[in-house]
Amino acid sequence: MNLVVVLGIVVTLATGIPVVLQLLRRHPRGLVILFFAEAWERFSYYGMRGILVFYLTQHLLFDDATASNQYGSYTSLVYLLPLVGGLLADRYLGTRKAVAFGALLLVAGHLTMAIEGTPARQSLVYAGQSYEVAIQGRMEGRQVHLMVSGQPHEFAATAGGLEIKNLPDGSPLPAVLPAGQYELKNHVDPFGRNAFYLAVSLIIMGVAFLKPNLSTIVGQLYPQGDPRRDSGFTLYYYGINLGAFWAAVLCGMLGQTVGWWAGFGLAGVGMALGFLVFVLGKPWLEGKGEPPNPALLQEKVAGPLNREWLIYLGGVLGVAPVWFLVQNNQLVGWALGASILAALGFLLWFLATQCDKVERERMSLALLLVLGSVIFFTLFEQAGTSLNLFAARNVDLDVVPGGWNILGMHVDTNVTAAQTQSFNSGFILIFAPVFAAAWTYLGARRRMPDPTLTFGLGLLQVGLGFLVVVWTQGLAVEYRMPLYMLGLLYLLHTTGELFLSPVGLSQMTKLSVAKVVSFMMAVWFLASSIAQFVGGRIAGLMGTETLGGQVLDPAAAFATSMDGFNKLGWGGVACGMVFVALSFLVKGWAHDADAPKQEAALPSVGTNRQSSGP
To answer: Is 614 part of a structural domain of the chain?
Structure first.
């Protein structure tokens, strides 16, 4: 049995039982349904995410820069399109119907990811002759050789070229191929590649309808000023990471040992379970998330189609332009820029014409927090790209050679690179209940720290996470860092995330005017979209040369990673210090948003627009 599996069972049992008991006793019953629905949805997303960069670099044989940019395009669109889903839910569908429709698209998308097609092949062309690159295995267990005269040969980068090792006398290739005198050609199965793009397009469209609205229903379960709200969002965040943890452990293990199809297929099964939980748990939502105007939704607008079915048809047809867009990183950048301008334009108009002074300052504070989340997640989301590749290439993943024997059971202590993605979520399983209790204690006594301050502290920690690896790079042996240093990086990223992300989700529902609360939740995810796109570009700059998906020069890969982590680390620390300083200037902008509803019922606050969701 794998060590991460054993630890995961222990942590889940130790922390999960108290969490579920707290959900049942102290929070609305609907939170239980949203908790498990989100856990399965995140299982599907993170199950795919944990092995995606390896699939791109090894199965489709993209180079590091192309794979990172492709990853950035996909994840950017995943967080960009919720702007549309949030608006449609606010105006027409209601959050519950939007979530159910999005879940069905996600099931279709994740199951389509299990269609691999034929693995891409690569050949080296020199002096008009082509030499096959022989590839076996996946992720860090991958073995790549260059076939010369029917014999496999290892290779490595050397000064000014590529060294082919152990070539016999009379070989048609020289021992060193000068740079620029050879060419690598990829042969990609078009069916498998197009199936991949269709799958991610379905996933993107599904997330557009599901992601902002599931979080919004959580906010709708609590009345204004309920001190349980921050605790509820932190527990909901526990559900997210319960799914993410087991996705990284199980999908990562299956992806490496069985096949890409198994890892991706298990993610699809997880999403199907999430859909069932949400649909069957409808009575526990107590009418939350229903359409704002049912009569308008059922109105015939296109022949026999009412407005609801027209939205569903538009969502399915919208997969086609997304399929085209996800393949073009530059176009995604333009679309992202246009979306930012459109969202800011609408919000500026709304602030100027629809808000009083108190609402305007609350909304402005929310936008400042959105900016902080852009910076944080640009650094944090390196996990799926540069940090994932760093784990496979420059981290010693064997904790104890030979493993352990515990009570007569052999425990394999060799962690896979994809399973290191479970570190962040595993730490949250441990610390989320502690943070939930702290937020509840402070909230009940009206002593919650200013959200801008907590964001600053979160930024400081995500920056320090990178810096501790840079500062201890001398511990590396043969350009491989000890696994515990990568664990320390993820620990600091996790505590930073717990300072920032659940508090940010809660603040969006507190500070936003009720009629645009789903839209503001979508803007929160737009921040992640920006971060994913920029993060993908940054990860591409940290890439290194590969052949058959295998690094040619581990020393160069290590040096490039250290340089990139150093810049990211100091950037995070600097931004964190700025936010800590700003917290003293904007601390009054919340205008007591945490106050109970009856205390805040003043005309200037506009509680008629804040008492309930859409």
So the answer is: no
